[in-house]
Amino acid sequence: MICQNTIIDDRLYFDTVRVPKDRISVVIGRDGSTKKEIEKNGEVKLTIDSDEGEVSIDQMGDAIKSNTAKNVVQAIGRGFNPEKAMLLFEEGMQLVIISLREFAKPGSSRIAQIKARVIGTGGKTRTIIEELTGSFISVYGDTVSIIGDYLAVTYAEEAINMIINGKKHRTVYEFLERKARELRFKRIEESFG
Question: Distance (Å, rounded) from C-alpha 173 to C-alpha 117?
Answer without folding.
Answer: 13
